[in-house]
């Protein structure tokens, strides 16, 4: 059957069928590999599906339905142009979806933060992926506990003009048995949560997992690209067990007094930075 013998309906259904197969394959990759687990809902998986659906299932077949006319002299050129437009849009869409895919979620200073692949250049992802959290790829960034460590963190923040957690990616370690004890001291302040929003506190207080075993499960705020929630972290399984739809801006607070937060230490660090800047200015 040559192109001129195909009806508009046949052309549309053929194009739609091929595009649908491609969409199903890409959807599998998005849901199970690029944005697995909670990343799909919170970190861009739904938008990725929508992007691919539009450029693959809607754009191409839609143009075919609009342009295709049996017997038209320029039909071959028109269909070639449609295929070229669709392929270009699909390559662009898949490239963006893939390069912005979720890479890891890191715990630091009382909260989880999702990190995209484009921001994870310094992260040892194979090591993180080998951890016990499976496709959640949970990591931990140890807080600075000495003057030298805090000074190093502060200098890095000055260098990048940002304190974004992904700038410390080379310091990420898998959230496993060796480091999970560092999370034990962090607890979500329910009084502060109730003050922020009483409904938030009621939602957390009624969670079955926390009511059943509050020693096993830990409430940790989680921030991803498109949503904030409270993660119910399972200390035994070393992974996030569930999510609570509570978009709090709080972080869990440490029960001990972190050394870096002491005023004396902070002053020492500031003075050290000032001295370093002065020496650099004088060329010493």
How are the strands of the largest sheet arranged? 4-3-1-2-6-7-8
Q: Number of helical runs?
A: 10
Which regions are unreliable across 5 or more consecutive residues at pLDDT < 50? none
Percent helix, as a range, is: 40-55%
Return Rg in Å: 26 Å
Which helices and strands occur, and which strands form pairs?
Layout: H1 8-34, H2 39-42, H3 45-67, H4 75-99, E1 102-108, E2 111-116, H5 125-129, E3 138-140, H6 147-160, E4 173-174, E5 186-187, H7 190-196, H8 198-205, H9 208-212, E6 217-223, E7 228-234, E8 239-244, E9 253-254, H10 263-282
Parallel strand pairs: 1-3, 2-6
Antiparallel strand pairs: 1-2, 3-4, 5-9, 6-7, 7-8
Helix pairs in contact: 1-3, 3-4, 6-10, 7-8
Task: Describe the overall structure.
The protein is of the alpha+beta class and 284 residues long. The chain folds into two domains: 3-99; 102-254, no CATH class. 49% of the residues lie in helices and 15% in strands. The chain has ten helices and nine strands. It has helices at residues 8-34, 39-42, 45-67, 75-99, 125-129, 147-160, 190-196, 198-205, 208-212, 263-282; strands at 102-108, 111-116, 138-140, 173-174, 186-187, 217-223, 228-234, 239-244, 253-254. The protein has a seven-stranded mixed sheet with strand order 4-3-1-2-6-7-8. Helix 6 packs across helix 10 and helix 7 packs across helix 8. The radius of gyration is 26 Å and the shape is elongated. The N and C termini lie far apart (81 Å).
